[in-house]
C-alpha cells in the first residue's frame, strides 16, 4: 500500500521574511534604500531569476511541470529535490521583485514630480537667465527645461530608451506632437525602462490619459551632426482623428 507522501509538486518555502540574494528583505529594509540602490537590487533579483530559470530549463520543466509519473511516483529522469528548491527560490524572488518594483514606482513618481517642479521654477526665471532650446513639432529640447535635466543628473538616474517609434501616421496625435520614426523613447508618462512590462505600461498610460497631454521624453539623432538630441514632447491621445487607435504611431521594444 505504501506510505503517504508530501505533495512533491508544491515547493517548500521556509518561514520568515522573504530575502533576495543580496540580503534585502521585504518591508522595512527597503525604506532606507535610495532609488538607484533599489534599481541595483532589482537588477540583482532579475539576474538570479534568470539563472534559476536556466536551472529549470536544463531539466525541461517549468514552475508547473509535473514531478511525478502517471502512477504518482517521483520522476527518475529529473532531480526532483533541486527542482523543488529552485521553484521555492523563484517564488521568494518574485515576491521580492514585486516589492522592489512597488518602491521603485513610488520613487520614480517622486523623482519626476521634483523634476517637473524644477522645470516650472526654471521657466519662471527672467528671460536673461533662461536659455531656450529649439522647438521641434511641439517639442522642446532638453536644454529648454534645465530644471528637469539637472534633477535627473543630480539623482544619477539614467533613463535608458525602452521603445522605438517604428512608424507615425501623418495627421495623427503622435505626428502633431512631433514624434518621428526612429525616435527612441526614454519615458512615456510614468512608463520607463524599469516598469514598462513589454510596453503594456505604455498602453495603460494611454488609456488612462485620453484627451490629456502626456509627457514623452525621446532621443533623436541630429541629421546634421548625428549626435543624440533629447526632446520632451507633449502627446495627447485622442480618438476621432481619422485613423486607428489613440496615438497614430507604432512603438516596438528598443
UniProtKB/TrEMBL annotation:
PANTHER family hit by this protein: 26S PROTEASOME NON-ATPASE REGULATORY SUBUNIT 9
UniProt keyword annotation of Lipid biosynthesis present: no
Bias-annotated ranges (Polar residues): 138-149
Family (UniProt): Belongs to the proteasome subunit p27 family.
Ranges where the PDZ domain occurs: 143-222
Keyword Flavoprotein included in the entry's annotation: no
Biased composition (Low complexity): 11-23
UniProt keyword list: Chaperone, Proteasome
Organism: Xylona heveae (strain CBS 132557 / TC161)
Entries under InterPro entries matching the protein: Nas2_N (IPR040815), PDZ (IPR001478), PDZ_6 (IPR041489), PDZ_sf (IPR036034), PSMD9 (IPR035269)
GO terms of biological process kind: proteasome regulatory particle assembly
Cited Pfam families: Nas2_N, PDZ_6
Region described as Disordered: 1-27, 123-149
Superkingdom as given in the UniProt entry: Eukaryota
Protein name: Probable 26S proteasome regulatory subunit p27
GO cellular component terms attached to this protein's record: cytoplasm; nucleus; proteasome complex
Amino acid at each position: 500500500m505504501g506510505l503517504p507522501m508530501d505533495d512533491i509538486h508544491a515547493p517548500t518555502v521556509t518561514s520568515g521574511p522573504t530575502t533576495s540574494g543580496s540580503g534585502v528583505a521585504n518591508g522595512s529594509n527597503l525604506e532606507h534604500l535610495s532609488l538607484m540602490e533599489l534599481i541595483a537590487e532589482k537588477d540583482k533579483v532579475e539576474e538570479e531569476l534568470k539563472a534559476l530559470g536556466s536551472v529549470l530549463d536544463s531539466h525541461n520543466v517549468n514552475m508547473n511541470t509535473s514531478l511525478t509519473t502517471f502512477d504518482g511516483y517521483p520522476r527518475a529522469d529529473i532531480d526532483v529535490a533541486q527542482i523543488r528548491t529552485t521553484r521555492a527560490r523563484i517564488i521568494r524572488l518574485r515576491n521580492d521583485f514585486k516589492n522592489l518594483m512597488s518602491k521603485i514606482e513610488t520613487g520614480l513618481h517622486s523623482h519626476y514630480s521634483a523634476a517637473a517642479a524644477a522645470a516650472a521654477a526654471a521657466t519662471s526665471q527672467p528671460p536673461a537667465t533662461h536659455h531656450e532650446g529649439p522647438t521641434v513639432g511641439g517639442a522642446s529640447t532638453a536644454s529648454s527645461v534645465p530644471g528637469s535635466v539637472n534633477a535627473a543628473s543630480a539623482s544619477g538616474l539614467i533613463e535608458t530608451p525602452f521603445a522605438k517609434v517604428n512608424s507615425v501616421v501623418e495627421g495623427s496625435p503622435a505626428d502633431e506632437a512631433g514624434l518621428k520614426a526612429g525616435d527612441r523613447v526614454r519615458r512615456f508618462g510614468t512608463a520607463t525602462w524599469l516598469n514598462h512590462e513589454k510596453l503594456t505600461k505604455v498602453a495603460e498610460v494611454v488609456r488612462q490619459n485620453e484627451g490629456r497631454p502626456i509627457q514623452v521624453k525621446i532621443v533623436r539623432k541630429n541629421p546634421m551632426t548625428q549626435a543624440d538630441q533629447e526632446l520632451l514632447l507633449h502627446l495627447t491621445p485622442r480618438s476621432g482623428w481619422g485613423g486607428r487607435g489613440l496615438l497614430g504611431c507604432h512603438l516596438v521594444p528598443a
